[in-house]
Design a protein that fits this description.
Number of domains: 1
Number of strands: 2
Distance between the termini: 59 Å
Order of helices and strands: HHHEEHHHHHHHHHHHH
Number of helices: 15
CATH class: Mainly Alpha
Strand content: under 5%
Low-confidence stretches: none
Helix content: 55-70%
CATH topology: Ammonium transporter fold
CATH architecture: Orthogonal Bundle
Length: 433
Amino acid sequence: MTPATAPPIPELTSILCLLFILLVPFAVAGLALISTGLGRSRSAAHMMLSCLLVFGVGAIVFFAFGFAWQGYAGRPGHAVSIGGKPWDLIAAEPFFWRGLKLDGSPAALAALLGMMSAGLAAVIPLGSGGGRWRLRSAGASTAILAGITYPLFAHWAWGGGWLSQLGATYGFGMGFIDAGGALPIHAVGGVTALAITWLLAPRNGKYTNDRQPLALPGHNAIYVLLGCFFAWVGWIGLDCAGAILYQGAEASRSVLIAANATLGAAGAMLAAACITSLRYGKPDASVAGNSFVGGLVATSAGCAVMPPFAALVVGLVAGTLVTFSIEWFELHFTIDDPGGSIPSHLLCGLWGCVAVAIFGQAPGAGNMAGQWVAQLAGIATLLGFTFPLSYGLNWLLDRYYPMRVRPDGERQGMDLFELGTGAYPDFMRHNDD
């Protein structure tokens, strides 16, 4: 079937959208720096190379297969009829972008943005598996994410799939709204991070014999905070491009989108700094950095439909969530997530999706009545289908191609064990023991 056609975009808007897409790699660089800084110094080069590797694998796999499953509104897809209503389940594009004109059309821009987004989503789990995830296994897991889990959910949310059509078919608001990928990119990456964390188990020395967590602080707060600046730039590009392509936003709305991303990130960072200051006497740089990213994630979904004050409130809540959930996950679920990917990407992505129904304002003649149902349907699909699928596929991968490095490799450090060289010269080495 061919779903409802997406509206065309003017040539100037197309050019601006391309420029926004070209900013997305800054977000990848930002997450790479954050994950590296929050890890151990003896695995720093390994983390940076892993981020570059999985971004490349994700982009290639999406080019080969991913866009064939994601597609774009108005292009062919496979659907079933339930209760007389069409449910578009998967796109029907040729592999390797065959037949896709790379001429600045909305479909071509969506394919390019999807390539960047698949690579960005693949970088998210690396922070959770830092210090113990083998390089080759990370690349194989990325092929699963970029070729199956990400494009499936992205089709449902963005490619004319059933989630995006809940408004037209059942009258649930404007259908599922998520301009910047809070669920399709960040929460999909977050549930993959959760699956990887459970499969890898905690790092050696993280927990005592009675399962009490010990602090294994990151080695370089400068990387973490510098990564926030890069992520901020990349997020603005991602949110603006997504709003133009998937919500039909005008180019002039990019001012609102950039303001919302900035307010959300700033609010989240300030909330984390204040809470950690009250609890520990001094602000925690790593928690503030993770909260900054969490604020960016939380405002991504409704970046084009929320007023600025709402974005600030969303950010404040996101920072609070990240600050308390890091400790909560470690204490109650023995989740060892050195990069903080699960709180900042998964939890804040879910919160941002809910925030659309709370604070969203329909542009033009749109109707937000019933938007709660559409947003909750997206969350239920992510947790009830995408997470079990991701966990199951990575579990099978781990059975036949073990993900965790050998104990001597973890003790020696991933840099020397897998790369044969360290990130720092001897006179700059940190004491990771």
